[in-house]
Amino acid sequence: MAGKVPATVVTGFLGAGKTTLIRHMLQNAEGKRIALIINEFGDLGVDGDILKGCGIETCTEDDVMELSNGCICCTVADDFIPTMEKLLDRDTPPDHIVIETSGLALPQPLVRAFNWPGISTRVTVDGVVTVVDGRAVTDGQFAHSVAAVDAQRKLDENLDHETPLSELFEDQVACADMIVVNKADLLDTAEADGLVARLKDEARGGVQVVKASMGALPVSVLLGQGVGAEADLDARHEVHHHHHDDDHAHHEGDHHDDDHHHDHDHHHHHAHEHGHDEFESFIVTRSEIADPAAFAEQVADVIRAHGILRLKGFAAVANKPMRLTLQAVGPRVDTYFDRPLGSDPRETRLVVIGEAGLDRAAITAALVA
Ligand SMILES: Nc1nc2c(ncn2[C@@H]2O[C@H](COP(=O)(O)OP(=O)(O)OP(=O)(O)O)[C@@H](O)[C@H]2O)c(=O)[nH]1
Question: What is one GO biological process annotated to this record (predicted)?
Answer without folding.
Answer: cobalamin biosynthetic process
